[in-house]
Task: inverse folding
């Protein structure tokens, strides 16, 4: 690896709302960034990447983009920025990008979403992070970042729990220089459960009730239901040894009430008939809570409703 | 009242799937039946009533129909056969139909739906019944009865709980002579809770998931959810001192699995943008269970989702 002052090299898997924004900012700041794209490959190759952002708009007319990981170089850091529903592809991709000191930072929603990467490269190489942002891909190679943007991240390996490691400082340095609001965390699981306190009620209810955040928060029984689901997330986390305090629940509710009306990423996936990230955001937290002796009944019910809706939404379509 | 051999006189409130079928059958068998109609009044007056039924089709070219209860005679028995969402009108209607010995039989879904009638005429005059039938109003004065048809009914007054009263025998006699499958029950609350074991999961999920019974039963997680909701109904009933055995739950599931694909009455109400019977079918059972110390969490969640859906479905419309 390079000296601590030098910027790292990056591979970014997925050029959507997350990969396009953060990968684009890193490239703009001078990092060597290699994108792995699928449907947008030709567009990115010809026209580059366009980012409209509350942090400032920019174009990268020429980006290093690949459609096959086998052609990509080994890098210092891989950002996994596609949906969890593509994680089964990591076994075909990561071996080409990872050398002995490469780290893999999984920037996805959900719980234990780092496991797929860890199974391929070993848990000691893996970190995870949650992105608190309103951002959408609005066209090929075109990302619109509307609000927020902070990344909280930490080590995945249980032996490193509680530490801010040197390599985390390295990530922090590059990301900060790129203008990204980034926050190293000692406990990745706490970061993930706290994010789930938002994702579980608002991703789930937005799809089942076809509603944006504002419609839900302005209806008494719906906002009460959102709060109860948050409390179940907090109780699930507590069963797993992670504290999500009542104050966090109240803060999330206030934050959502004051937010611009926002269609959750799961609602957008549903509307585009893409597979929903049900295992990452619902199945895994439920399984962890149950294994710890707590049954999150409302979350389970939402999960089953979403399974039905997702199945019907994609019936007859390739999965 | 007449001698025990004479048929009783009837008023039927609502000429829909329930009132049209049962009122029509009673009239056809020779009972004096007076219908109170709203939107269909002119059509019924001019063209009479048409019933297509698995028990045999028939037309009643001339029926005694009213649009104002003040013009109606006092009768021996009033059948309340409109939706519970119209029960606030009972205080304007029942006084005109009830003499000292009139009984009021409330043929509606839900729990404690007899209360509105009891508040007007006194609980000792009131009986309640559940109709196990697939029947729809398919046009003005036109009912289509597709399957089943049994009525189970009993006394509402707690002093009469456990009894098959003489007046219940009287109803049984008239209904049986009219060809109606009718079953006097000693415990109305048991009848109602057992019916709720079907209505709560299948009315509720059919609206939230926009699905008929067959789609729900053929999807693993959705049918599991239906079963869990049934079990919560059974536990709610148990808290209220009513036994709904596990065998009933299994029987209901088998019965639904073998049913023709059926759109629940609540789904039809939703599609027609009519108010949903949420208080009768959800609010009341939840309140009774909570008062008895049991919290039906999944039913509560379904109730809140339905409140949101019902509110949006009728936003900007007269309630």
Result:
């Amino acid at each position: 690896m390079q000296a601590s002052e030098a910027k790292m090299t990056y591979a970014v898997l997925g050029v959507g709302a997350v990969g396009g924004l953060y990968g684009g900012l890193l490239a703009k700041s001078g990092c060597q960034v290699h994108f792995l794209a699928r449907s947008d490959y030709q567009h990115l190759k010809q026209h580059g990447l366009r980012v409209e952002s509350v942090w400032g708009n920019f174009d990268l007319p020429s980006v290093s983009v690949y459609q096959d990981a086998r052609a990509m170089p080994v890098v210092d850091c891989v950002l996994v920025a596609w949906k969890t529903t593509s994680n089964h592809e990591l076994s075909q991709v990561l071996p080409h990008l990872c050398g002995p000191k490469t780290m893999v930072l999984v920037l996805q929603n959900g719980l234990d979403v780092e496991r797929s990467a860890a199974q391929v490269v070993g848990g000691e190489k893996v970190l995870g992070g949650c992105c608190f942002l309103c951002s959408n891909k609005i066209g090929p190679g075109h990302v619109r970042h509307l609000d927020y943007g902070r990344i909280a991240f930490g080590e995945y390996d249980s032996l490193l729990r509680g530490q801010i490691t040197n390599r985390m400082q390295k990530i922090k340095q590059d990301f900060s220089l790129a203008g990204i609001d980034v926050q190293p965390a000692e406990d990745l699981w706490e970061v993930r459960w706290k994010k789930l306190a938002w994702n579980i009620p608002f991703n789930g209810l937005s799809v089942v009730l076809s509603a944006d955040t504002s419609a839900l928060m302005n209806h008494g029984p719906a906002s009460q239901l959102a709060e109860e689901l948050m409390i179940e997330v907090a109780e699930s986390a507590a069963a797993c040894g992670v504290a999500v305090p009542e104050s966090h629940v109240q803060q999330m509710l206030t934050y959502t009430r004051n937010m611009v009306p926002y269609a959750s990423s799961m609602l957008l996936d549903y509307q585009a008939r893409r597979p929903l990230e049900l295992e990452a955001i619902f199945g895994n937290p439920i399984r962890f809570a149950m294994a710890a002796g707590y049954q999150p009944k409302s979350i389970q019910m939402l999960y089953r409703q979403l399974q039905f809706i997702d199945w019907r939404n994609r019936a007859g379509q390739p999965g």
The interface with chain B takes residues 205, 208-209, 211, 215-216, 219, 221-222, 224-225, 228, 297-298, 301-305, 307-309, 311-312 of chain A (CB under 8 Å). The radius of gyration of chain A is 19 Å. DSSP finds twelve helices and ten strands in chain A.
